Amino acid sequence: MNSYAQDGSKIGKIAVLLPCYNEGLSIRKVVDDFRKELPDATVYVYDNRSSDNTIAEATLAGAVVRSEPWPGKGNVVRRMFSDVDADIYIMADGDGTYDSKVAGQMIQRLVDEHLDMVVGTRRNVFENAHRAGHGFGNRLFNAMYRSLFGPLFTDIFSGYRVFSRRFVKSFPAISSGFEIETEMSVHASQLRMPIAEMPTDYGARLEGSASKLRTVRDAFRILFTFLILFKEIRPARFFGVLAMGLILIALVLALPLLLTYLDTGLVPRFPTAILATGIVLLAGIFTVCGLILDSVARGRLEQKRMWYMTNSRSQA
To answer: What's the rounded Cα separation, in Å, for the pair 145 and 155?
Structure first.
């Protein structure tokens, strides 16, 4: 069913995507809220091996319920983006922490400004629903993201997002877990897509509902994702930093030998000299690898861009 903007222009088919794992306490209300705010949209609930009554509650609420056997939010998102065909996609969580009342505003902004993604940044996220460790990690990783990939995002971990069709159908979705939001942000930054952020309220979970996040484990997974994506997108800089580090180590090892040689004309510690030489050679190898992989990355970027343009639809 097609939806229409405030000016009467046709928006197209809207799909609400809700990945879920053991959200039986809240999923029925979440589905009801989104159906109330977006009566013309189709609400999909993708269950990820829940052991509670998530499927039954979502079915009673009138959602289209499907299952994804591979564990992890990233695997669920990959399946949702592959299966569902729509013009505009809304992704939220099934725990009821995101405000469905702003969904229409996010869609309107996506359409009016011809964007590919609108991120619902979480207002008062730390005060309302997060442990102190999550708050510190969120700030740290957001600052790290801006230094590595660009300044456009202030809340890369928000799961409340509206996408265009061309974003969804060009997104590779390699991640398997909660780091999927980071990959979405990097994908938009790499292709320099038009994106926007919109502050939204972020509430606490219902009593008895537990968060699936694990502070230490997921922090390491996100950090590893940062490193992998940085290597894939900017290999020349990645391997260049490693090469510079190796050069510095080689200089620290070689400087005393050089000073001794200038004073006495002798090289007293041959193993150290050989080690320093080997480190310099390794730095050269890293530099060459970075230059070669940079050319490969540019070719892959061109392919991604072409696939992104292939899925474009005029919103004029």
So the answer is: 10
H or E stretch at 168:
helix 165-170
Asked if residue 164 lies in contact with residue 88, where contact means CB atoms within 8 angstroms, the answer is yes
Helix (H, G, I), strand (E, B) or coil at 279: helix
3-state helix, strand, coil in the chain (%, to 5): 55, 15, 30
Based on the fold, state whether residues 275 and 209 are members of the same structural domain: no
Domain count, the chain: 2
Residues 223 and 256 in one domain: no
SS3 at position 231 = helix
Token output for 67:
């299952």
Structure tokens at 216: 């230490």
pTM: 0.83
| Pairing outcome for strands 10-20 and 117-123 | unpaired
Rounded-to-integer distance, Cα 98 and Cα 158, Å:
10
Name, in order, each residue with C-beta under 8 angstroms of 188's C-beta and a sequence gap of 6 or more: 116, 117, 152, 167, 195
Contact call for residues 79 and 45 (beta carbons, < 8 A) = no
The C-alpha atoms of residue 98 and residue 82 are separated, in whole angstroms, by 24
Q: How far apart are CA 97 and CA 183, in angstroms?
A: 22
Domain end (from 180, 210, 230): 230
Per the domain annotation, does 314 fall within a domain? no
DSSP single-letter state for residue 53? S
Which pLDDT tens digits describe the chain residue by residue (316 residues)?
555 454 444 578 999 999 999 999 999 999 999 999 999 999 999 999 999 999 999 999 999 999 999 999 999 999 999 999 999 999 999 988 999 999 999 999 999 999 999 999 988 665 554 555 566 777 888 888 998 898 889 999 899 999 999 999 999 888 888 889 999 999 999 999 999 999 998 877 666 566 666 667 778 888 888 899 899 999 999 999 999 999 999 999 999 888 888 888 777 788 888 999 999 999 999 999 999 999 999 988 888 888 888 876 544 3
Q: Which of 212, 230, 248 is the last residue of a domain?
A: 230
